[in-house]
Structure formats: structure tokens, C-alpha cells
Amino acid sequence: MTKGQQSRDEKFRERWGEFLGYLEHLRETQDRGALAALRRGLAYPPGQAMEMYPYIMPHLPEDARSWESDVAFLIAALFAYHPDGGGWGNMGDHFRLARDPQGDDVALERRFSIMLTAHPDDLPFHLRQAVGFLKSRERPIPINWPQLFQDVLAWGHPERYVQRQWAVSFWGKKAPSSEASNSEA
Fold it and tell me: How many H helices and E strands in the chain?
């Protein structure tokens, strides 16, 4: 990890740690009412499901910009849909774990490629599809929620570094032992 990446991660945790901790708390306490209200956000553009407000607004940073709040609403809705913890890496790693070693992954690669090229305005749709896919696996693939949140916040960066990181994680070479140990967990 580079010094710049470490600094970004620290700033992210400082700014959004309470919000992410709150989502973890909802999972740990199995607050079905709150999770159901957050899931209803999947049917609306981020920030438009009023049922989510009592659960999200108290946990946003006071100086959160509207686009950051929209990302928080999106992540909360997706989290409530698939709250399994313990994911590692980024969405490229998650999709890599979804590959069928004996199968044809053309459809999976097409789905992943389309998501990589998504305009920031279209990303919520593609992420809903991706999270639903990962949840529907015979062995659901957990998501690294802090990493996904950080990645979505940076999705529109002109250098497209998030998309490149996801692509490297999905198509790049990885040590077989790391994949095997994570797919068995």
C-alpha cells in the first residue's frame, strides 16, 4: 500500500467510520426493522427513500456534501440487502471469487465489464445487480463494505483508478493460496 493510499484510507475511516460502524451494529443486532427500511432504498434513487432518513441522517458527517450523502444512502441500501460481513478486497476480487473454475464465464465477464464502464449516474443500478448476483451464489460472497463505499465515492475520478483496481483484481494474476483460503471461508 502506498503512502497516498494509506492517507486516503485513514481520512476515509475518520470521516465515515461512525456511519460504517452503525451499519455493522445493525447487522450484529439483527435489527430487522431498520434493515428493512434501508432495503426499501433499493427501489429509489439514492437519498430518495424517506423511510431511510431516520436511520441514516444521524450518522452522516455534518459537513457531508449531497453527493457523498447519496453514496451513503446507496451503500446502506445495498448493505441491508446483503449484510454478510468478512469480505476482503474490492468488487473485482468479489467477482473473481464468483467465477466457475469449470464453467464458461462469458456472461460474468460481460456483466463485470459493463459495470466498469458505468457512468456515475448509472452505477447504483449496476451495483444493485452486482450485489444481488453475489448474494445469490450457492455460497454467497461477502462484500468488503468499507472498500466499496470508498470506491463508489471515487468512481468519477478522471484517472478512473477505481475501475483499474477492480479490473486488475478480476483479471490479474493472484496467488492461488489467497483465493483458495478466502473461497473456503
Answer: 10, 0
Tell me the torsion sign for CA atoms 58, 81, 105, 178.
positive
- Numbered ranges of CATH 1.10.520.40 in the chain: 84-185
Write the CB contacts of 86 (distance below 8 Å, at least 6 apart in sequence): 142, 185
Q: What is the DSSP letter of 64?
A: -
d(Cα 69, Cα 167) in Å, to the nearest integer?
26
With beta carbons less than 8 A apart as the criterion, state whether 120 and 156 touch. Answer: yes
55-107 pLDDT, tens per residue? 999 999 888 889 999 999 999 999 999 998 788 999 999 999 999 877 788 99
Chain centre distance of CA 37: 19
What pLDDT was estimated at residue 120? 94
Third-level CATH fold of 84-185: Peroxidase; domain 1 (1.10.520)
The pTM score is: 0.86
